[in-house]
Amino acid sequence: MSLLNVKNLSVILATNDGPARAVRDLSFSLNKGETLGIVGESGCGKSMAALALMGLLPELSETRGEILLDEENLLDKTEAEMCRIRGNRLAMVFQEPMTSLNPVHTVGNQIMEPLQLHLGLSESAAREEALHLMDRVGIPNPEARIDNYPHQLSGGQRQRVMIAIALSCKPDVLIADEPTTALDVTIQDQILELIQNLVQEDGMALILISHDLGVISENTDNILVMYGGAAVEKGGTEQIFNELVHPYTQGLFAAMPKLGRARTMRLVTIPGTVPDLINLPAGCTFTDRCPIATDICRNTPPPLEEIEPRHAVACHHLQEARSRKTEELFS
Amino acid sequence: MSVFIAKRVLTLIATLIGASMVIFLVMEILPGDPALVILGVDASDEAVRALTKELGLDRPPVERYWSWITGLLQGELGNSYAYKVPIWELIEGAMLITLPLAVMSIALSIVLALVIGLYAAANHNKAGDVTLMGISQLGISIPNFWLAILLIILFAIELRWLPAGGFPGWDEGILVCLKALLLPSLALATVVGAILARITRSSVLEVFREDYVRTARAKGLSQRATLWRHVLRNALIPVLTVTGIQFSALLTGTVVVENVFHIPGLGSLVLKAINNRDTIVVENVILLLATMVITVNFIVDILYAVVDPRLKAHDI
Fold it and tell me: Beta strand pairing status for A311-314 and A230-236?
């Protein structure tokens, strides 16, 4: 029995140009203490999947499938019930620390809020706990910082505050959506390490969303690669880095800048752009950018097939994808 | 904070000095001789000259400006040319009507605006929102003097709940006076309230899209709790700006409605004074209005700093 079990999750957003299928048939499970990485480009649906888990999608959007947290389907919960789950059993850290904190409240008050809401702590007890949390997330001199406003803190410190808020009620699952993308490179590692350590200490499950394969490879047990709103490859982190199969996963890997590469060599890119979620192609969504696509790709969506235990790939040309080297596919 | 306030006080003084010069200059340029208006067109040149000398109007403008300002600083406004009574008495009576009227109007507007604006924002694009915004558009479009007449017809003539006009004076009791001011303030508050309601609505909707609102929801706060704790205070900043501007406008712009209701407020006083070429009264009333407007702006600026902690750091 998994802690979090997502089955056939689909999200349809209402846009001015019509319904957009932001997430399609996404399934994954997560055990206590496990870390799942979700990778993909901007616009591949990873953030929408995260917001769907939290029940915080924009108005008028539709969610289908099942999100089972301890066998209870979150999609059947009322809004009031979801309010008791959010921040308490499911917590989220967002990408933008600069704008994710309310500018008119002190950071202390913002950390104290979930403590008072979910744990029913008194103001003084919540303040004590907030000081303790600030210390835990590595904010120096919490006594002086607790009455600061967000604009008085650096980006890295604000993200630490966000993490303190998310961890305040010891959630079962923490969702970190690009938690380091907006931060300096030097701070990125510190924040990731902090999240890892805290998650391990409290034994919670983590969903780490990133477009950065480097971040994902170092910090996760399992990986889900998303493209055009659906999973194209999933498996254990080691399995996937041992053998990158799906042409898109290979493309992502090839596009990472590497040390030691000759200066004159240009960075590899995947040609084209992510598909329009409103007019998704009938077959594989990666067809237009895929170097080995054929007619069948254009017309029939490929199923997720296991190529080894737990490692599944959605591609019509598994043989060819596995035999070709990444450098051949994208150069 | 103290630097912030000190800077603002200096600006306030400088603005007042500038305003007093402009007011004096305009009254100098204004055609029409006070003495001639008081004595009438048939008056002899000698009589006019004598009165001009008596009023002190034969002195050079710089000297008159100086004595006006030094008089002001000593609390001595002088006498009205036309009525021969101390100017302060005229102003005091009028101000005790206009100021409460403006305060009542702005208070009514704020209540209207918050109720309508918040309700409309909470029901964004639903029937209630669309209807209320349609009504508020109407509220902005209606001239307030016309609305004043409609209110008189309904509440004074048909229902007979409230007086049609006039002002009994504060000696007659507060309740009677507030009753007399209710219809005029309602006429004024409709337009101002409609403007503020629309700004409240759009501001709340804008703040609802902010990242920190999503954070608040992710903490487990309900939509309603998020609105009160995280949205409202941020949304109030633009509302505060426009409230300040509208309150200033109410202080100086009640003259039309005052006339419809026959209320002897500051607007009526200054209108009469201009007709009588009672320049000294005009100068003092306008300077008083300027002071009130600047003071309102000053208070609004301080309120900004109270609402938004980022402003203190920048010491604007």
Answer: antiparallel
The stretch B221-246 carries a mean pLDDT of 91
Kindly report the nearest CA distance between residue B213 and chain A, in angstroms. 8
Can you list the domains of chain A with their CATH numbers? 1-89+171-331 (3.40.50.300)
Q: Are residues B120 and B169 both part of a single domain?
A: yes
Q: Which of B276, B242, B230 is nearest to A105 (CA)?
A: B230
What CA–CA distance (Å, rounded) separates A120 from B224?
A: 19
How much of chain B exceeds pLDDT 70, in percent? 98
Q: Pick from B211, B220, B234: which is nearest to A104 by CB?
A: B234
Q: Which domain holds residue B123?
A: 87-314
A188-217 residues labelled b (16+ CB within 10 A) or e (exposed): bebbbebbbebbeeeebbbbbbbbbbebbb
Tokens at B231, concatenated: 């949205």
**B201 contacts B123 by C-beta, under 8 angstroms:** no
Judge: A94–B211 Cβ closer than 8 Å, yes or no.
yes
Give the number of domains in chain B: 2
Same domain, B128 and B233: yes
Going by C-alpha positions, the residue among B240, B145, B144 that lies closest to residue B199 is B240
The residue from B39, B73, B107 where one domain ends is: B73
State pLDDT tens for residues A277-322: 888 888 898 988 888 888 888 888 899 889 889 999 999 988 888 8
What is the ipTM metric for this complex? 0.88
Q: With an 8 Å Cβ cutoff, are A86 and B220 in contact?
A: yes
Here the CATH number for the domain that contains residue B173 is: 1.10.3720.10
- Residue pair A239/A308 in contact by the 8 Å Cβ criterion: yes
d(CA A105, CA A98): 14
pLDDT tens, position by position, B183-207:
999 999 999 999 999 999 999 999 9
* CB of A152 less than 8 A from some CB of B: yes
